[in-house]
## 1
Amino acid sequence: MTGAAPGARPPATLSGTSLHAIQPGRGAGHVAALSSGALRRWLTSGLAWSAVVSVVVVAWVLLALDGRLYYTTPLETRAYTAAHRALRPSGPVGQTLGLIGALLMLMPFVYMARKRVKWLKTVGGMRGWLEVHVFCGVVGPVLVTLHTSFKFNGIVSAAYWSMVIVVLSGFVGRYLYVRIPRSLRGSELTRSELDARSESLKVDLAEAVPSMDVLRRVQAFEAAAVPDTARLSVIDLVAGEVGLRWRSRRFAKELVRAGLSPDLADSVVALTSERATLLRRIAYLQRTKAFFGVWHVFHLPLVYLLLVIVATHIGVTLYLGYVPFRW
């Protein structure tokens, strides 16, 4: 990699993608490689798979098991519907969904053990564990929601809304986590490694652009996309990268209008966007780490509280005679 520091660790990851140097002039092959990389990221995304599984399960319950009619029937007359025996919280489907959902929601404790138990640290990479954690943290609550049959009262209500708060908090934590540049193994990169990568991308850009006019456009794009330390804000931290993607699409069209071929414009924009994203995350690095630390202090007690409430709910259920798998 041009300009990389000797002995550097594997490339960082931004939004789950490898910070790789894109060689200019690859044309359609380069665009195909980008598409292949996007597909690979989707196939290894816990969030994407959790969405697929959740949609499939919800569609099965609503359509195949007549859940749509069951859940919209008033509570007073719901027991008279044909789906009640299967979908009620203590029914075959409802109870099974609840048990699977509860087991999936125990995944955070396995994830926490992976970070603390010495022999577990060598099992898989942190990115893979994080994606499994995200998958379980989304699918579990979906199954538990179906298990409740949308009846919230007493301790069930406390358990359910505690779960919702934990899930929403988890999304915030994942957002902050992926904005701290890391190696492919999940270890945080040092500032010198980030600076070396930034310089490497700068050299690659200088080699890729065909004229000084295009280089000036690249520099203007970077100046608009990367905040200086005097105008850092929480809003820009949260929404800035969405705006960057929008600017990148406009920038690609601008380069084509300036006379570049679509393939070369795509290559230049890919390099420019990658460097701008990296520079943005360097600028916000300390603030992101501070927010992540505060989030961690907030999130962990909620997870433990949820565990206590769920254990209490299961204990009360067993005490009242709802024995699992006896329908």
## 2
Amino acid sequence: MIERIPQRGKTDCTICAVAMVMGHPYNYERVLRDSEKYPKISEEGKFYGWWETYLRDEDFLIEYRPFMELYRLPQYRGQVAGLLMFDIPHIKYSHIVAVDELGIIDPADNMPPHLDIPEYVLGRISQGAVFHKEFLAVADSKTATY
């Protein structure tokens, strides 16, 4: 089970979500410090998913999976977590949350520790969110059994 790490600012959801899926000994401060080693903007001037390289460098297994497979994460009993990204076009904002066997862990202010996946997704869609077609499945290569 993932422990929630709340956001400290409006734009640090990625640091929080990455730290959450990595677990101990990765905390907010460590991931923030480590993230400074990775480029955030590609050579083409686009936002770069630095966390993918970071997770691989730290010996995590990662794979983009279809959005609908998100609902299957409980079957892995905590061995596989997810990073789920979505955009909120009307406010030009993107957000990322962690997902484990108990549901969604949103680092945003005033969110509970876990939220039901279908309820969270439907709630965000009703607020105008557009979920990415895939989520990033994450497993620790030292403990993965899938």
